[in-house]
Batch of 4 targets.
Target 1
Amino acid sequence: MAQFDLPLDRLETYLPDVREPADLDASWAGTLEAARALPPVVDLRPVDTGLTLVDTWDVTFAGFDGQPVKAWFSRPAGRDDALPAVVEYLGYGRGRGLPHERLAWTNAGYAHLLMDSRGQGGQYGSGGDTPDPVGSGPSAPGFLTRGVLDPAQHYYRRLVTDAVRAVDAARALPGVDAHRVAAAGNSQGGGLAIAVAGLVPDLTTVLASVPFLCHVERALEITEQHPWGELVQYLSVHRGAVDAVLHTLSYVDGVNFARRATAPALFAVGLRDMICPPSTVFAAYNHYGAAPRDRRIAVYPFNGHEGGDAVHARRQLDWLRAVLPPTADQPARSADAADAAGRPNGSSARNEPSPNTPATTMAHVYPPVASTRNPANGGPNSAPAPPAV
C-alpha cells in the first residue's frame, strides 16, 4: 500500500476540531463511579505455566456493571518487592490467549496484567475467556456497532470501563507498586491505553501504538478497512442513523480522551496504515495533553498496521526503563532520556532516522506540536500536572 494520507509535514501539525459531547466528563464520571462501587479483584488463582522464571495468576476482576473480566497477571519469579506494573490491552478480535504468550514486560522486570477483551477472542490468537453478557439491537458483524445508537448501550462504553477497572485491579494485586503503573497496547489496545490515560489522571506512562478509534469521522472518510468497514456496512443499511452513530462514537473517540491525558506517552504510527490511518493517530497525538517534553511519536514511513513491530517493542522497553524503572532505586528520567536510551552514543531522537532501526523502517521520533485545546494548559477539563520524569 502506498502512502495515502496527508504528507508528513501536515500530519505533524494536524489539529482537527473533533466532535465532543458536552456531557462527556459527567457521563464518564458517572459510569466509573458506578463501576467502582465493587472491589476490583474478584478472584486470584496461581497457574502452572511450565515456566520457572515467571509466576502467573488467573485473575478475575469486576468490570463494567460489576461483570467479571478475566486477565493474566505475571511477575518475575523470586521477586518479593513491589514492582511497577504494565497493564496491557489487546487488538481488535483478540482474547487474552494463553498465559505464556506475552512475556516481554515480565522479563524486563515488571508486573504485567493482560486484560481479556469481553466477547472477543474468536478472530485470531489463542482465544479469550470473557463473555459480554449485554445484548444489543441490530448490528453489523463485529463489535463496533453493538449498541451504537445509544452511548449508554454502546459496546465500547463497557470495554473502556473494563480497561479502567483493569488499572484499579492491578493496583490492588499483591506485589504491585500502586503508584507506578503504565497502560500499553497496540491498535484497539492502543486506543484503550489512550482512553485510560484520559480517565485515570495518575498513570505513570502510556504506550499507544497505531491506536484504533481515534478521529472517527476522518477514518470513515478515508478507509473502509476492517473494523471501520463494520460502520460503513451498518450505515449503508441504516441510512438515517449517521448523526446518532457519530454522537455515540464521540464518547469513545481517542482524541477526546487524549485531550484529558497527562501521563508521558510514546505513540507509534505507520504511514501506510489503512486500518488506523496516520491522520487519525496524529490527531490523538497532537491533541495529547501531556507537557511537550513528555510525549513522542515514532513514525514508520514504510510500514502499515504492524508499525514498528519488534523494532518498536525495543523502543518501548527503552522508554519504559527510563520513565518507569523496574526497580524503585533507579531514578526516573525524561522523554528525552528515553529517546537517547536506545540510541548509540546517546544521539538525539528528533527528525533523523534512528540508528537502531533497519533502513526498511526508517523510524523517526518527533516532539509534539502544541495543541490549542490542551487541558494541561488550563482548559476546561484540566487534569493534574504530569508526574515528574
Target 2
Amino acid sequence: MSPLPAPGAMLAELVALPSASSFDPAADRGNRAVVDRLAAWAADLGAAVRVQELEGPAPRANLVATFGAGTDGLVLAGHADTVAADPAAWATDPLRLVETDGRLYGLGACDMKGFFVAALHAAARFDPARLRAPLHLVATADEECAMEGIRALAASGPPRARWAVVGEPTGLTPVRAHKGVLMERLVLHGREAHSSDPAAGASAIEGMVRALAALLAWRDELQAAHRDAAFAVPTPTLHPGVLRGGDRPNRVCARCELQFDLRSLPGMDPEELRVEICARVARAVAGTGLRFELRSLYPGTPALATPPDAALVRAAEEICGRPATTAAYGTEAPWFAAAGMETIVLGPGDIARAHRPDEFVTVDELDAAADLYARLIGRACGGTAEGGGRHAAAGGARSRRSSPPRGTDRRRRPASGPSRRRRAACRTARTARCGRRGGRGRPDCTTTPARGGSSPGRCGSRRSRPPRSRCRRNTCAVWRRRPGCGTGRPPVRRALAVRRHPC
C-alpha cells in the first residue's frame, strides 16, 4: 500500500481538476476526473472501489470506496463537483492552490474538496483488514445543480451503514438538522395590446402582482403555523428572487416570470407545499384571462432531522467538544437518513466562504477534521488508528512545523510497541532512584534525603530526582506494561507527571 501524498499536495491536485456543475452546458465540466483521482488514492489504501457513471453532457460519476467488510460501519460522504467560477473575480487563479498564512485558496478548497483530503488521511490511519465494520467513502456528482448524483446512488442502492457523516463545511460543528429547499418558477401568459387601451390585452405583470401577494400572504400563514426554535431562523421562509416581465412601457406585457425559494422545516411535506402553491396561484389569477405554468427549477432537497439524543449526535458532540446545531441550507444528508442511517453534517471550513471568490480552507481545519474523522471511524468501525505507520502521509500540509507531522493524532502516541522515547523514559526513571547517573536504582539506596524527607521507593537526592516530564514510578502505561522497571512499592501519584509524560 502506498502512502498518501501530503494533504496540501492532495488538495492542490484536486483543485487543479476542473469539476464545475452548471445548468449552462458551456460551463458544465463534470466531476469524473476528481472521482478517478479519489478512486486511485482509495485503492492504494486497500479499498474496494465502485464507480457509478451518470448520463449527461459532461463526464460525471459517483464513487463508493469501501474499506473492510461486514455490516453497520460508517459512511463519509461529499460531493466531488464545484460551482462555476469567474476567474476575473478571484485574486488568484481559482484552479491553482495558493497557501497564504495557513490558508489554502482555490475553487472547491472549502466546498468541498478539502473534506476528501481529511477523510482519506483519516482512513489511512487504519488497516482495512482489522476493521470490525466497514468504512465507506462516497463522492457524488451534480450536487451544485440538481443533485442527480445522490439521487442515482439512492436509486441503485447506497452503501449500508449505521452512521453517515456528510462533510459539508460546518466549522467542525456537528449539524444534526437542516431545512428543506424548494426552488420554483411561475410563468404567467397574457395578451399583448397597446398601452392606450389596456383592456384590449391581459397584463401578465398585473397578474403576477396578484399571484405574488397571494404567495406572501401564504408565507405569513406558514410562519404562524410552523416554528422550530432549534433553528436560527425558526420559521419557514419564502423569498421571491427573480422577477422578469415586459419589454416596453407602452405595451401590455404578455409574459411575466417569477422564481422563488422556499425553505421548509422538518416535517413539512414538499409535495403538499407544491400543491398548495398551485392552488393559491390559481385562485389569485382566476378571472383575469391569464394562463400560468408552475415548474420546479430542480426536484428539491428534503429536510434533515436527526434526533438530538441519537448515538451519532452524542458521539460527535463528545469528539468535537461542542453541541450539535442546525442549518438553513440543504445537503445530501437526507438521502442517507432515508436509507436508515443516523446522519449528521460535519466538515472543515465555513459555509460562508463557499460559492464566492477567494474560497479557502485552513491547514489547521484539515488537520482537525482528519483527527475527528479518525475518532469517528474508531467508534463506528472498531479499528485502532495507527497514527503514522505504513499508511501515513509522506509529509505534512506545510513544512515549517516538523514535529509532530500533520495528519498525526497529537493526543496520544501509537500503542503498537515500545518506541525509542518510551525505552529512554523507562531507563531514566529506573536510574533516577540513586544519586549517580549510572546507578542501578537499588532499593536500599542510602543517599541523603532531600529537604522535606524521603518518599517511599524513591531516592532522596535532589539531583537524582527525575525531571518533571519523565515517568515517576508506576504513574503511566510504561510502568504498568514493564513492571521490571519499578521496585514494586506504591507509586508516587503525580498528575503533572502523567500529563507531561512523553507517552
Target 3
Amino acid sequence: MEHLNTIYRNFDIRGKFGEELTTEEVEKIGYAIVGLFKASKIAVGRDIRPSADELFAALARGINAAGAKVLDLGIVTTPMTYFVGGKNDDIEVTVMITASHMTSEYNGLKITVEDAKPVSADTLQVLRRIVGEHTYSAESVVSNIEEHPVHEAWAAHFENKFSFIDTPMTIVVDPANMVGVLEIATLKQIKGLTVHAIYDEYDHTAPNHEANPVKLETMRDLGHAVVEHGAVLGVAFDGDADRVGFVDETGQPIPSDIIGSLLAGHLMKQNPGAHVVYDVRSTKRLPETVAVLGGTSVKEKVGHTHIRKTMREHESILGVELSGHFFFKESHYSEGGPLPLLYILELMQHEQKPLSVLAKEVAIYAQSGEINSHITRPAEAIFTDIKAQYPEAEVETIDGLTLVMPQWWCNIRLSANDPVMRLNVEADTQNLCTEVTETLLAIIRRA
C-alpha cells in the first residue's frame, strides 16, 4: 500500500482522512498496537475533527479484536492523554486522535507507551510493516469499551498546585476554537486567576485563525484582547493544546525560547544542579541562564521524541522547543498543558515584575526568527557552500548544520514536515544579525 510510507511519520501517524488515513487502516493499526506493545488496556482520546468519532470506532474495533480493552477518554487535549498514561500503571498505551494544528480534513494518531513515553520513528516503521504485511479481518467483534473521564482529575492537579490569591492576576486565553477550549475551565478553577477567553467555542474549521501560535499573525487578536482587558499576559494553544504561545501585557508576542529561558531560571532555583534540554534553534541565553544557576544544559535535535528521550536520560526538569513545546519532568517528560503558563505567572508573582520586563532581561541578543526557504539544490551542497563562507566557524551537526562564531551562531536544517529549509540566526547586535542572515539566505536560495 503506497500510502503507508506517507502517513507513518517521524513523530506520529498523520494523513488526509479518507484518502491517506482510512478507517480500515486505523482498525488494523489498533489490532497491531496490541500485539506490538503487548497491551491489555489502551486509553484513547480525540479532538473535535469531524473524522474523530469514525476513527475512534475503527481504532477501538481493532484493539478489541486483538483482545484488549479500550478506555474512552472522550474529547481531550493531547497532554491529558499523557497525564492518564503517566498516572495509571495499568494503562500500557495511550492514543490521541488528532492532527494538531493541521486543517480539519487531516487527522492522525499520537501514540505513547508506559509512563507516557512517545514511540520513536523506528517503532512507527515497525508498526507500519506489521500493518502492511499481515492480513487482518474481523467480521464480528465483542465491544469492550469503558468511559474514562479525565477532566476533573486534570483540573484538580493544577488547582492543588497553584494559587494566585495573594497576587490576583487576569489572563486571556485563545484556544482558536479547537480542543484547547477545555483548558479555560481548568484555569478558571485556580484561585486568584481571572480568565477571559476569545474564540472559545468549538469549530473544527478554526474560522478565526489557524491554531498555530508559532505564526505571529495568529497572535494579533490575543494581543488586542490582553490590552483591552488589562491582563498580565495572554496564552494561545495549538490544535491539540500541546503547544502554547505567549503575549505580554502590552500584547507583544514573546518567543518560545525566551519563555523557555524564563522557565529554566525559575525551575533551576527550585532544583539546583538540574539538567535542561533545549533544541538547536533556541537562544544561547537559555544555556547561559542554566549555567549561571549551576545547572547543565543539553542541546538536542528538533522533535519531541528526541527532546523527551534525552530528558529521561538526564532526568531533566525541563525541555524547550522553539515551536512552543515545553516538557516537564513532573508531567512524565511530556507537555504539561497549562503548566508553562502557570509557572510563568508564578515567576511574575515572585519577582513582582511584568512579563515584558522579565522577557527583556533575558532577550539580550538579536534574533532573525525562523525563516523558511524553498530550495532547488541538495541540502548537502548548500551546507558545503555555507561552511566555505565561514571556514573559521565551529561546526555542529546535531540537527542540520549549526555554525558557532564568537559574536553569532546559526542553524540551518531541513523541515521534517514541509519541503523547505529553515534558518535561525542569533547575534550580539541587530546589524550583525541582519548581515549574517542576508548572507546565509543568498546562499540557501541560490539556484
Target 4
Amino acid sequence: MISNGQSFLFLKLVQQPQPQYANSRLFSLLNPGNDFYPVLQIMKNLAQVLLQPNYAR
C-alpha cells in the first residue's frame, strides 16, 4: 500500500516463474464518491490474510 493520507494505491506481487507486479486504481478520500469504505474493506481483507496461521512471512 502506498498512501499520502488522502490517496491510496495498492500493489500486488504475483510470484510466478517471473515476478510480476500490478497496481490498483488510485483511491481518493477527497473525491465526491469518497473511497473511504472501499479502502477500509481492502485493509480489512489484508489484515485477515496476514493474521492467518499458515501465512508465510
